[in-house]
Specification:
Blueprint lengths: L2 H4 L10 H6 L23 H4 L23 H8 L22 H6 L8 H7 L10 H11 L11 H10 L3 H15 L9 H26 L4 H7 L4 E6 L2 E6 L8 E4 L8 E7 L4 E3 L1 H4 L5 E2 L15 E2 L4 E4 L2 E7 L5 H10 L7 H35 L6 H15 L4 H18 L2 E3 L4 H7 L2 E4 L11 E7 L2 E3 L1 H9 L5 H12 L4 E2 L13 E2 L2 H13 L2 H6 L1 E7 L7 E8 L20 E7 L1 H4 L3 E4 L8 E2 L2 H16 L3 E10 L1 H4 L8 H9 L3 E10 L6 H10 L3 E5 L4 H11 L7 E2 L18 H19 L1 E5 H6 L2 H7 L4 E5 L3 H13 L4 E5 L5 H6 L2 E5 L4 H6 L2 E3 L6 H40 L7 H11 L1 H6 L25 H29 L4 H4 L12 H30 L23 H17 L1 H7 L7 H26 L4 H5 L2
Parallel strand pairs: 11-23, 11-27, 19-22, 23-26, 24-25, 25-26, 27-28, 28-29
Antiparallel strand pairs: 1-2, 1-3, 3-9, 4-7, 4-9, 5-6, 5-8, 10-29, 12-13, 12-22, 14-15, 16-17, 17-18, 18-21, 19-20, 21-22
Length: about 1100
C-alpha cells in the first residue's frame, strides 16, 4: 500500500523528543522517560470488541490467536495455523509462581501494534525526525541492556562438580582419601608405598573420568550460537537528527531504524513508513513461505500476525521501511524463543537413566560389602585374630572392596562407544548433537514425521485441471489450446494461472525447457507457473494486464488476488470471455486459493461447453466438490481459480482510500465466477515406503503430522505406507468417556458402554486414525488414551502447539517419542520430544534445538535407529565383559582373605590396573562391533523393563563367567603356592598364623608371585570372555570378527587383546614396578594354562548359545541375557 493511500507522513510525528517529553503528565525534567499506563482489555464478544479501538481481543483458544470468539472451530484453526506457539517451556524444575504470567499472556498484553504511531513515539519518548539523543540512548541502554540474547547460565562450578563426583567419582574420591590416610598416618611408623601408589592411581582415574565427562558435555550443541548468527551486525539508525550506522547490539527501544532490501530486522520494530512494495520474509519465525507485505496500520490484533510489526530476525526481501524499535534483546519474539529453546533443566536421556541405575546397584553392593568387612573385623577378627588385619589394612580392604566392585573403565567405555557411533552416523550424513541421545533413538517406539519436504520431495507439479467436472491432464489442456478454435475455459484457466501468480521465471534460464528453468517463488506458485507456461507463454498473458492492487497469499486468508485492468483499454484479453459484460474502464479480479475458502465467495461457474457462466446451484457445486474430493483422495493439493468483472464505479473511488484492503475483501472479492480447479502433487520420496516399512518391522509406530487437509494427508499417508488399512476412523469413533471396567457388569447400560469401549479398543488394531486440528482441540484424556493406542495415525491441519501436545500425550503413556521439525516455531516441540530430529534444509534454530540432524534424506533415520539400538547392545556387552574379572573375580580374594584367613591372592594395585587398563582396551574394541542379525526386526526395548544391567546379565556375569574365572584363577594361584611349598591346608583358616617352619620372607615373595599368576590368569581368561560376549545369540563363526571378507569383521579385537597382555608383561617385569607395586614375573606354564581356561569359557558359552537357539522357549533361553 502506498504512502498516499495511507495518507501518512513522517512529518506528522516531527516533534522533537524534548517536546514529547515535556508534554508528559507529571514530567518536568527534560530527558525523563515517559511512564504511560498500559491499557489492555481482553474481551470475548463482538460488542465488547467494538467498545475501544485499541482493545486487544483474544479468543479463548489454545494458541495466541486473536479476535472475537466464534463457534466455527474449523475456521478458527485456519486463523491459528500459522500462529507461533511459545507457550512452552522445557524447564523440568521450574518453581510454581502463581503471579508470574506465562509467555502467551505476556504476548497477549503487547499493544505496540494497536496503538497509533504517534502514541508509540510518545510512549518511547522519541521523535520520527530526530530519533533519540545520546543521553537517552545511554540511559535506555543501562536499563534494557544490549540488544542481544542473554546466554543461558553456564553453571561452570556445578558442571565441574558433577564432572568430578558424578557416577562413580564420589566413591572413588573417598577411596583415594582413605588410601592416603592408610599410607599416613595409619601406616606409621612403616608406611606401605603400595598404599600411596593406589591413592595416586585412584586420583588419576578420577581425572581421566572427569576429562571424559567434560568432553562429552562439551560436544553437545547449543542453540544460542545459531540464533546469534541469524541476527544482523550493523543497522542504519537515526539519532540526534543524524543518520548513522551502529552495531545492532547497541539498539535501544525508541531508536528510529531504516530497513532496505536484504536487511535483517535487528529488533522488534513498529513500522512508521513503508514503501508500496515492502515485503518481509517471516519464514524463519512463522514458517510462511510467501513474503508478507509491510503496512503502517495494524492488520490484526495478534502481535505475531499483524503486518505493521517487523519481527527480529526476519528479512526484507523487497522495498524499504522506517520503523521505531519497540523491543530488544530477550524481550523480542526471537529472544523469547531463544529462552524456550535453551532454558530449563534438561531431562535425563534413557541411557543416562540406565547408567545411573547401574551405578546405584554397584555402589550399593560395594558399600554393603565394605560395611560387612568392617563389621566382621570389629566383631570377630580383631578380637579372635588380633594383628591379622591392622587398622591401615582394614582401610585398604574396605577400599579394595569398592575398587573390586566398581568397573572404573565403564565411563571411558560409554563415552568411547557413543563417540564411535556418532562418528559412524556422521559418515552416513547424520549429525548427532548429543552423544547420550544416540541410544535414545534406538528406544523410540513412536516416530512423528512432517509431510512436506520430509516424506515428500517438495517438488510440486500440476497433474490435473478441470473446468467444472471436465477433467484434463496438462497435455490434454495444451492440446485444446493448440486447436484452431481454442477452448475458452482452458484459455481462461491458463490466463488466471499465469497472471494471478507470485512466482516468476529467471530470465537467465528462459532458453531452457520449462521443467529446467529456475523459478523465483514458493513451490505452489512455481508449479502453477510451469503449468501456465506449458499452455501459453506467461509473458504474453501478463503483458495484457497492469496490476492495480495485489493481496498476497497467506496461510490465514488462504487465497491470493489481483485487481487488474487491460493495458489496451479496448481489448478483451483472457480471462474475459465473449459473454462477459465488460466496459473499457472496468476491472478484472483474479483469485486463486483453497476451495473451501473461495467457494463460499462464488456465485457462478464457467460452462465447460463454452457458453455463459452457469449459476452455482447446489447440484453444480456438488459436481465440483466431487472432483475436488476425488483429487484430494489421490493425494493432490487442490486450488480453485476464479475471476470477477468489477465495474469501475465499485472500485475507482476507493483506490486512494485507507480502507482499500477491507473494501476489496468485503465488497469486491465476492460474487466470483469459478474458472476451474488445479490439482497439484508433491510426490512422496521414492525411498519413503521402504523406510516406513522398515520402521514398522522394527516395532516403531510411524505417524504423519502435517498442516495439510485431512483428505490429502490421508492419501499421501497411503502412498507412503503410513496408512495401510482400508478403513480410517475419526474423532467420532473415540468415546468421550471410558467405563470403569470393574463396574461394567453392574447394569445393562454400563455393560453396553463397556462393550462399545472394547470394540473401540479392537478398532485401534484394525483401523487407521485421522485427526485434524479442530479434533485435537475437542479431545479429552479418555479420547487421547484411545487415540494413542492406534497403530496408524495421521494428524492433519495441526498447529505448532498441537504438535507439542501430541508429543506430551504420547509421553504421558510411557512412549519414547521422536519428532521431526524444521522451523523456529518447532524448537519447543523438538526439545520436548525424547529425540528431536531436524532435516538439514531446516532453519538453524531447529537444527540446534534438535538432537539429530539428518543432512541427507529422511530415510537415513533407519541407520540412526539401527545404530541407536547397536550402541545399547554394545554397552550391554561391555558391562558384561567388565564385570566378571573387573568386579567378581577381584572381590573373591578379599572375601577369602577376610572369611577364610587366606592370603589376599590379588593385590589392590593389580585390581585397579585390571579395571582401568587391561580390561578397558578390549572393552573399547567392543564399541566397534557390527550389528547382529535381526537388530531391526525386533521391537524397541521397553525402557521400563529392559535395563542396561538386569538380573539376567548379573546372573551371567557373576554366576557363570565370574564363577569360572574366579575358580580357575584361584586354583592356579594356590597351585603355584603349593608347588613352592606352601600347602593350601596350612593357609586356610590360618589368619596370619603360619607354621614356624615357613620362612616369612620366602612366603611373602611367593604370595607376590602368586598374585601375578592370578593377574595373568584373569587377563588371559578375559580373551575367552571377550570372544564369547561379542554375540548374544550367534556363534563365533556366524559373527566372525577375524576374516577380512566377514561383514562382522572387527579388526580392533586382536590388537586390543595383545595390548592388554603386553601391558601385563610390562607392569610385571619392569624392575621399578616390581619394587613399587610388588609385581613379579611368572613361569611360562602359568601363562599357557590360562589359555585353556579361556578356550573353555568360549566353548561353554557357545554351548549355551546353541541351546538358546535350538530351544528359544526353554529355561536356558528364558534366563539368557
Amino acid at each position: 500500500m502506498s504512502m498516499s493511500e495511507d495518507d501518512f507522513s513522517l512529518r506528522k510525528f516531527g516533534a522533537s523528543h524534548d517536546d514529547v517529553e515535556s508534554s508528559n503528565t507529571g514530567s518536568t525534567r527534560p530527558g525523563r522517560t515517559a511512564d504511560f499506563p498500559r491499557s489492555v482489555t481482553i474481551q470475548e464478544d463482538d460488542a465488547a470488541g467494538r467498545a475501544g479501538s485499541n482493545a486487544l481481543r483474544r479468543q479463548g483458544s489454545i494458541g495466541l490467536t486473536t479476535g472475537p470468539q466464534r463457534g466455527d472451530t474449523a475456521s478458527r484453526v485456519v486463523a491459528e495455523f500459522r500462529t507461533l506457539s511459545i507457550d512452552v517451556t522445557q524447564t523440568r524444575e521450574r518453581p510454581a509462581e502463581a503471579a508470574k504470567k506465562n509467555a502467551a499472556q505476556q504476548l497477549a498484553e503487547l499493544d505496540w501494534h494497536v496503538l497509533a504511531a504517534h502514541d508509540v513515539l510518545q510512549r518511547l519518548s522519541t521523535s520520527a525526525t530526530a530519533g533519540l539523543d545520546a543521553e537517552q540512548v545511554e540511559r535506555k541502554l543501562s536499563q534494557t541492556g544490549p540488544n542481544e540474547m542473554s546466554p543461558p547460565p553456564s553453571n561452570h562450578l556445578k558442571k565441574w562438580f558433577f564432572y568430578v563426583f558424578g557416577g562413580f567419582g564420589s566413591i572413588l574420591f573417598i577411596a583415594a582419601i582413605l588410601c592416603f590416610i592408610a599410607w599416613k598416618p595409619l601406616g606409621e611408623p612403616d608406611p606401605v608405598a603400595s598404599n600411596l601408589a593406589l591413592a595416586v592411581i585412584l586420583v588419576l582415574v578420577i581425572l581421566v573420568q572427569t576429562g571424559f565427562n567434560a568432553w562429552q558435555d562439551w560436544s553437545t550443541g547449543r542453540v544460542m550460537s545459531s540464533i546469534k548468527g541469524l541476527l544482523p551486525a550493523d543497522v542504519s539508525v537515526l539519532r540526534a537528527g543524524t543518520r548513522s550506522t551502529v552495531e545492532a547490539r547497541a539498539l535501544v527501544p525508541g531508536d528510529i531504524v531504516y530497513l532496505a532490501l536484504g536487511n535483517k530486522v535487528p529488533a522488534d520494530v513498529r513500522f512508521l513508513d513503508v514503501s508500496p512494495d515492502c515485503r518481509l520474509d517471516r519464514a524463519v519465525l512463522t514458517g510462511e513461505s510467501e513474503p508478507v507485505a509491510a503496512t503502517v496500520d495494524g492488520t490484526d490484533a495478534n502481535f505475531l500476525e499483524t503486518k505493521n510489526i517487523g519481527l527480529q530476525g526476519t528479512l526484507v526481501v523487497a522495498g524499504s521501511a522506517v520503523g521505531v524499535v519497540v523491543q530488544t534483546g530477550d524481550g523480542t519474539i526471537f529472544g523469547r524463543i531463544a529462552k524456550l529453546s535453551s532454558g530449563g533443566a534438561p531431562g535425563l536421556t534413557t541411557l543416562q537413566k540406565e547408567i545411573y541405575h547401574f551405578v546405584r546397584i554397584i555402589v550399593a553392593c560395594a558399600l554393603t560389602l565394605a560395611f560387612i568387612v568392617i563389621i566382621l573385623w570389629a566383631a570377630w577378627l580383631n578380637k579372635s585374630h588380633p594383628g591379622f588385619i591392622s587398622h591401615a589394612a582394614l582401610v585398604i580392604d574396605a577400599v579394595s572392596v569398592c575398587v573390586a566392585f566398581i568397573p572404573e573403565g565403564l565411563p571411558v567405555c560409554v563415552t568411547m562407544s557413543l563417540a564411535v557411533v556418532a562418528h559412524t552416523l556422521a559418515r552416513n550424513k547424520i549429525l548427532c548433537k548429543t552423544l547420550m541421545t544416540v541410544e535414545t533413538l534406538g528406544a523410540v517406539n513412536v516416530l512423528c514425521s512432517d509431510k512436506t519436504g520430509t516424506l515428500t520431495e517438495n517438488k510440486m507439479a500440476v497433474t490435473r485441471a478441470a473446468v467444472l467436472d471436465d477433467e484434463l491432464t496438462p497435455l490434454e489442456a495444451r492440446d485444446r489450446l493448440d486447436k484452431r478454435t481454442q477452448h475458452a475455459g482452458v484459455l481462461q484457466l491458463a490466463a488466471v494461472a499465469a497472471v494471478c501468480n507470485a512466482a516468476s521465471f529467471d530470465d537467465a534460464t528462459m532458453d531452457q525447457p520449462i521443467g529446467l528453468r529456475n523459478v523465483n517463488g514458493d513451490a505452489t506458485d512455481t508449479a502453477i507457473l510451469r503449468f501456465a507456461e506449458a499452455l501459453r507463454p506467461v509473458k504474453d498473458a501478463q503483458s495484457d494486464w497492469k496490476v492495480i492492487f495485489k493481496l498476497d497469499f497467506s496461510s490465514k486468508t488462504k487465497f491470493m488476488l489481483k485487481l487488474l485492468q487491460p493495458v489496451a483499454l479496448q481489448s478483451r484479453p483472457a480471462p474475459i470471455s465473449e459473454h462477459d459484460d465488460f466496459a473499457p474502464d472496468d476491472y478484472v479480479l483474479m483469485c486463486k486459493g483453497a476451495p473451501d475458502v473461495l467457494l463460499t465467495r462464488c456465485t457462478h461457474i464457467n460452462d465447460p461447453a463454452g457458453g455463459r457462466a452457469l449459476p452455482l446451484s447446489p447440484d453444480i457445486k456438488a459436481r465440483l466438490t466431487a472432483v475436488q474430493e476425488a483429487w484430494a483422495a489421490d493425494g493432490q493439493r487442490v486450488l480453485l481459480v476464479a475471476k470477477r468483472i468489477v465495474s469501475a464505479s465499485l472500485v475507482s473511488e476507493h483506490l486512494d482510500a485507507p480502507g482499500l484492503v477491507d473494501h476489496i475483501n468485503l465488497h469486491v472479492n465476492q460474487g466470483l465466477t469459478v474458472v476451474g480447479l488445479v490439482g497439484i502433487v508433491d510426490p512422496p520420496r521414492a525411498d519413503i515406503p521402504r523406510t516406513v516399512a522398515t520402521m514398522r518391522a522394527a516395532g516403531i509406530r510411524f505417524f504423519m503430522v502435517t498442516g495439510d487437509f485431512a483428505t490429502t494427508a490421508a492419501a499421501i499417508a497411503r502412498q507412503c505406507g503410513i496408512v495401510t488399512t482400508e478403513r480410517t476412523d475419526g474423532l467420532g469413533q473415540l468415546l468421550r468417556e471410558l467405563p470403569a471396567w470393574h463396574d461394567k457388569a453392574s447394569d445393562s447400560a454400563t455393560h453396553a458402554v463397556a462393550v462399545e469401549a472394547e470394540e473401540a479398543a479392537a478398532a485401534a488394531d484394525r483401523n487407521a486414525l485421522v485427526l485434524s486440528g479442530p479434533d485435537l482441540m475437542q479431545m479429552n484424556d479418555d479420547q487421547w488414551a484411545q487415540a494413542c493406542a492406534y497403530r496408524e495415525i495421521v494428524f492433519a491441519r495441526t498447529t505448532p502447539e498441537q504438535k507439542l501436545r501430541i508429543v506430551k500425550e504420547f509421553q504421558k503413556r510411557a512412549c519414547v517419542v521422536g519428532m521431526t521439525g524444521d522451523g523456529v516455531n518447532d524448537a519447543p516441540s523438538l526439545k520436548a520430544a525424547d529425540v528431536g530430529i531436524a532435516m538439514g534444509g531446516g532453519s538453524d534454530v531447529a537444527k540446534e534445538a534438535a538432537d539429530l540432524v539428518l543432512l541427507d534424506t529422511f530415510s537415513s533415520v533407519v541407520v540412526a535407529v539401527e545404530y541407536g539400538r547397536l550402541v545399547f547392545d554394545n554397552l550391554k556387552k561391555t558391562c558384561l565383559y567388565l564385570l566378571p574379572a573387573g568386579s567378581f573375580s577381584e572381590l573373591m580374594p578379599i572375601l577369602l582373605n577376610v572369611l577364610l584367613g587366606l592370603p589376599q591372592i590379588l593385590s589392590n594395585i593389580q585390581m585397579i590396573l585390571i579395571c582401568i587398563v587391561t580390561d578397558v582396551l578390549p572393552a573399547i574394541s567392543m564399541c566397534f562391533e557390527k550389528p547382529e542379525a535381526g537388530l531391526l526386526t525386533r521391537p524397541p526395548r521397553d525402557v521400563r523393563r529392559d535395563k542396561l544391567v538386569d538380573w539376567k546379565l548379573l546372573l551371567h556375569a557373576y554366576g557363570f563367567l565370574g564363577v569360572i574365572e574366579a575358580l580357575c584363577a584361584n586354583a592356579l594361584a594356590f597351585w603355584y603356592l603349593q608347588r613352592e611349598g606352601f600347602a593350601f591346608k596350612n593357609l586356610v583358616l590360618a589368619y596370619g598364623g603360619l607354621p614356624d617352619y615357613y620362612d616369612a620372607d620366602a612366603y611373602a615373595e611367593a604370595v607376590n608371585r602368586a598374585q601375578s599368576v592370578y593377574f595373568f590368569a584373569l587377563i588371559i581368561m578375559q580373551w575367552g570372555n571377550l570372544l564369547a560376549t561379542r554375540t548374544r545369540r550367534l556363534n563365533l563363526f556366524q559373527h566372525n570378527p577375524f576374516p577380512r571378507s566377514s561383514p562382522a569383521r572387527n579388526w580392533w579385537i586382536p590388537p586390543a587383546l595383545v595390548a592388554a597382555l603386553a601391558f601385563c608383561y610390562f607392569i610385571s617385569y619392569v624392575p621399578w614396578f616390581q619394587r613399587v607395586f610388588l609385581t613379579r614375573g611368572v613361569k611360562v606354564e602359568f601363562m599357557f594354562i590360562p589359555f585353556t581356561f579361556a578356550l573353555a569359557i568360549l566353548l561353554l558359552d557357545e554351548a549355551r548359545k546353541y541351546v538358546v537357539r535350538a530351544r528359544p522357549k526353554g529355561f536356558i533361553a528364558k534366563i539368557a541375557w
